[in-house]
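Q: How would the structure tokens look for this protein?
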Amino acid sequence: MAEYPDPDDYPSPDLRPFMAADVATRELPDFEAEGLLDGVEEADRGARIKLLTELYIEDGVDLETLKDEADANRLALLPADLVLGRSKVKYTPSEIAELAGLSVTDFQKLIAAVGLPRPGPEQRTFDDADLLAARRLKRFQEAGIPIENLLAATRQVGSSAARIAQAHRDLVASDIITPGADEYEAAIQLRQASLQLLPLAEQAVDYALRSHFLDQIRNQAMAMASPGLLGSGEGAEVSVCFADLVGFTRLGERSELEKIGTVAKLLESLAIEVTNPEVRLVKTIGDAAMLVSEDGAALFDAAIRFIEVGHEAGDELPALRVGVARGQAIPQVGDWFGPPVNLASRITESARPDSVLADSKAVEAAGEEDFSYSWVGQHKFKGLERPVKLYRVRRKDDTA
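A: Here is the predicted structure in token form.
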């Protein structure tokens, strides 16, 4: 059994903000002479001075940092940064690697897996929070988990965290900052939002993570307790569904990015809505969503509901097409891999708008009690030796 290192060997980082050494005794500088009012309209100067004064006197931010933030047009974000624990200490990847006991390459891969640009070895932009993340990675390695598995899991976490952060950013932008607020008011409102809402958001994420983790642990335990359920113990017989938006690429060519983001969010909300206890939403990738279930009938129900709920969304959502395939697949770090995954994706490309197309194995697994099928023909997909028999799937009570 692997020996786990003592958590005390990895202390929490020092996240003290940009405190100047002479906070208790220093006097207010001439902000105009220091260039901190350059480019600010006369009507907005009062708010800028009030913000600078509070940051300098009450928060103890040094003059150099105020200048840097003003030059980067980030001054209104600084109060929220202080609440979030931004640190003045800066490291290079080389220094973090040495302090954490990692290779520089492993730390670079960690940052890239989170979803951020891969840094250069001497890029001095990292702080104590990054050092703590590197030490966590080292602890996982010492517990015997291969680095590639860790990075694969980190990519999943990074992708999910980006969507969660975007959702809360949109919430703050639309509902927290008062329309017409000046720079000082916006800064204070952002700080209060960070102070009050961030803990709630973290608790919500922690709740969802723990709930899903416990659910999956239970499922894994049940599978291990059932001989032969997973075949060799590595895979499972599942139906895989892909649903994608027809014409999403063309939409991207002619629409604003905000519209594309709205459509992608709507697709994700639909995917969540059509799932049920037997059907799991694996992921959404821009214009597509992937569902998996061992219950073939339950997956067909979710696939058809995708079309139905998409119709209810009206013109806000382009038409959907859905493809389903069944076979042995392997779950890994939140995703699924295997022949039915690739086949379902290709079948989706052959489906007509607002239709569900499936292979014969998926049809056999779902049965004929609740669904009717129309023979479409055989299709030769690239990379497969034999043509695939395809069927259009409908509910039995569907008269359309």
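The two ends are 60 Å apart (CA to CA).

The chain is about 50% helix and 15% strand.

Upvote if useful.
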